[in-house]
Fold this protein.
Amino acid sequence: MITAIIAAALLAAIAVLYILLVIGLPYGELAMGGRYTTVPKDKRYIYGISIVIQLAAGVIVLQTGGALPLVLPHNVTRIVCFCFAAYFTLNIILNAVSKSKKERAVMTPASAVIAVCFWITAALNG
């Protein structure tokens, strides 16, 4: 359960970062390759979608780890948890090759911890 809580806490922190980007604060170097210091208004919806994904992933990992009551059957949340584990593993690579030093320094380790927590949670809660 502890790995699920760690993953969910990091996802919540990233969701807060994305909320700050959506409202126009200058933290864009931490996301999407650091293309923008302040994300243009016409691109902010992308972060809105990411917020929903981060929060959904958090709920899935908490349900799989037993920290939240199940809404979906356990075998479904476990499969989805494995899918998110793969997604966050890919995210490690994408963050590691980012042109942004800040994204590489902050988001790569965060993605790594999240991915490991998802793999462990999915594997140990079968």
Notes: The radius of gyration is 15 Å. The CA atoms of residues 10 and 43 lie 23 Å apart. The chain has a mean pLDDT of 95. The chain has four helices and no strands.
